Each structure stands twice: as structure tokens, then as C-alpha cells.
Amino acid sequence: MCPRRHRSSRKQVLGLTLPELMVAVGVGSLVLLGVMMVFMTSARSFAAMSNYVTMDQASRSAVDQMTRDIRKSKDLVSFSTNQLVFKSSGTNNLTYRYDASSKELLSWTTGGSTNTLLTDCDSVQFTMYKNAPGSGGNFNTTTTVSQGKSIAVAWKCSRKVLGRKMNSENIQQSLIVIRNKPVS
């Protein structure tokens, strides 16, 4: 006969006690909260970066279009800080105008369709200079159309990213020389 084993009077407890379970849930919750915060921050950063890239691409496209059109134009007809009018081919005029109410920079030719070059612009300002850079003389601003030889355009655009307005693009500037302007 086999000797009988002596059994302990204490029962083995398999599982967790309530305090152990509460500590485990608390630590797990903190880890999940940390992971969620990293995810949310990454998502916001990704959305902001994507927005910036889109706005930068639109800005570059607008500057390229304006540079081509202004350099091809015959002469500056009218100037204000929010609108430029150039004599284009034939009897057509080329107009650039910033509409503050819609926050858009628009362009159109006489009898042509309107093109939206930029959207979500907080400000756009045109400045006219007497000379072109590197031409000798003073590089001074003017408001007299006949004296204007180059145009500076500056703008600031912003958009909402995940419900918050963010300045995705600081002031962009470009200086464009009017090449075909008659000498006065």
C-alpha cells in the first residue's frame, strides 16, 4: 500500500485578488492612454503637414502663373493694393484681384472665365516699385502706374486642421518684373 499524502489545510488560490486586479487595470489604462495620446498627436501632425504641403503647392502654382502672365503682358493699366490690371494681347486686359470676403485671389481676362489662384487667404497685398532689382537707381515704391516696373505680391493663408485654425503658411512673397513695359 502506498502511503497517503498529507494534504495541506490551505487551499491554493488560482487567480488575482481584487487589489491586484485594480492595479493591473489602472496600469493598463495608463498605457492605453499614453498610446492614444501619441496616436492623436501623430494624426494631428500628419494632417497639418499634409495641409501645409497642399497650400505650398497652391502657392507655387499661383506664383508661377502670375509670373508667366505678368511677364507676357504689355503694360500695367491699373494698380491698387488688392487689384492689378494689365494690358494683355489685343484689347484684352488681365486682372488679378484679392476678394477679402471670399478670401480668394482671382484672375481673369476680358471676356474670359475667372480662375481662382488661391483660397483661404487671410491677406494679399500688391506693392509696385519704380525699378527692377539690379537696375541701378533707387528701389522705391510708387503708386503711379507709369512709373511701375516691378510688382511684389505677398500673402498669408491659413486653414482649419481637425477643427482648429492653424496658420499653415506664413507670408509668401514674390517680386515680378514687368518685362514688356514701355519706357516712359
Comma- or semicolon-separated keywords:
alpha+beta; five-stranded antiparallel beta sheet; 184 residues
Sheet with most strands: strand arrangement: 1-2-3-4-5
The helix count comes to 1
Based on CA inertia axes, which overall geometry fits?
rod-shaped
Radius of gyration: 33 Å
Arithmetic mean pLDDT: 83
Q: Unreliable segments (pLDDT under 50, ≥5 consecutive)? A: none
How many β strands by DSSP?
A: 8
Number of domains as seen in the coordinates: 1
For the sheet with most strands, the description reads: 5 strands, antiparallel
Along the chain, the helix and strand elements come as HEEEEEEEE
Question: How far apart, in Å, are the first and last alpha carbons?
Answer: 128 Å
Structural class: alpha+beta
Share of β-strand residues: 25-35%
- The helicity comes to 25-40%
Written overview of the protein:
It is a single chain. The protein is α+β, with helices and mostly antiparallel strands and 184 residues long. It has one domain. It has one helix at residues 18-72; strands at 75-80, 83-87, 93-99, 104-109, 115-118, 121-129, 150-161, 164-177. The strands form two sheets. Strands 1-2-3-4-5 form a five-stranded antiparallel beta sheet, covered by helices on one side. The protein has a three-stranded antiparallel beta sheet with strand order 6-7-8, with helices on one face. Strand 1 and strand 2 (83-87) form a beta hairpin. The longest helix is centred in the N-terminal third of the chain and has 55 residues, at 18-72. The termini are far apart.
